Amino acid sequence: MELAHSDHEMAYTVNLAGESIIAGEWNSSVEVDGEIPTPTSPWKEVCQFADREAHHREFERRLTPGIRQQRQITVCPIDGFVLFAETFLSTRQRTWMYSLSFAVSPAIQPRAAAETHEILVDGTGVKGLLLPLAFPEWKQGFNQGSIMIIDNEIRVTYRVAARRFYFPVFLTLWRVDHQAATAKDALNRTDTFPELTWRHLTVSECLRKVSSDEAVGYRIQIGDRQWVLYRSLTPPANRAVLGKNLISESLLGRFKPNGTVAPLVEVELDDEDEIE
Questions:
Q1: Strand, helix or coil for residue 228
Q2: Most CB within 10 Å of its CB: which of 9, 30, 111, 152?
């Protein structure tokens, strides 16, 4: 798995087995209390990390009125996934309307599942799954957003009333023998895609359940592989998720067979910049 990045345009290309999966600019927008905020600073890279298991970069800029916008991209080539995430931070309760779109290569056929929120990705020698982790797995009863495909573009909308929110998108890809693959019901999970699930985790602090605008946690399972994702949205605090104590800003880890978590990326919280 490879990823090309342009700092100036914030454009990305995700390739697997020589096939382009996602290509184009990272397009997102947000309305805050019914108004579109204006950037007051350029994008600045605030974190970079790379080893054989993970390549991680974070960017930040300021918006009016007193909002910090952060973008995160993490590529884990051995595990076979890319994590895109955006964070919006404010000190006040606000009503957010967030929109995100991914341009998919013309050679790729994205398909929305009928009852769940994942997008199935199908190419000549590649298959994949795109999971909007901030959404629940099942569509029934959910009215805070939507995910759809229009002209080979994946479009996501999300509405939330909070001081802060985190929106991660998990894209996993794997090579396939296209001749051996069988195409059954395109709108449902098929035998060519592994079983999957994801869950929102409870985050606790001093025996108190933490609200989703303080910190969030997710557990992702695809086939027999599982990962955990944690993100703090406030200054440092000793919190626990799945029984693991954390004082970091974020953690992305892989579950080992014995149930422990092997960190892929762990970022210490930088609290030197106060939100205006």
A1: strand
A2: 30
Its CATH architecture, for the domain 2-267, is: Distorted Sandwich (2.70)
Q: Identify which has the larger pLDDT, 261 or 124.
A: 261
Q: Find the Cα–Cα–Cα–Cα dihedral 19, 223, 84, 133, rounded to 10°.
A: 140
The answer to whether 156 touches 147, Cβ cutoff 8 Å, is: yes
DSSP 93-113: EEEEEEEEEEEBPTT-EEEE-
What gap in Å lies between CA 239 and CA 259, rounded to an integer? 19
Domain ranges of the chain: 2-267
Q: What is the CA radius of gyration of the chain?
A: 18
- Contact assessment for residue 81 and residue 171, using Cβ atoms and an 8 Å cutoff: yes
Mean local confidence (pLDDT), 156-170: 98
- Over residues 116-151, the pLDDT tens digits come to 999 999 888 889 999 999 999 999 999 999 999 998
List 169's β-bridge partners, or say none.
84, 132
pLDDT in tens, 201-232: 999 999 899 999 999 999 999 999 999 999 99
Neighbour order of strands in the sheet with 203-205 = 208-209, 203-205, 239-241, 244-246
Residues 6 or more apart in contact with residue 162 via CB below 8 angstroms: 93, 94, 96, 212, 213
In this model, does residue 160 exceed pLDDT 60?
yes
* Residue 107: band (very low, low, confident or very high) from pLDDT cuts 50, 70, 90: confident
Identify the DSSP state of 35. Answer: B
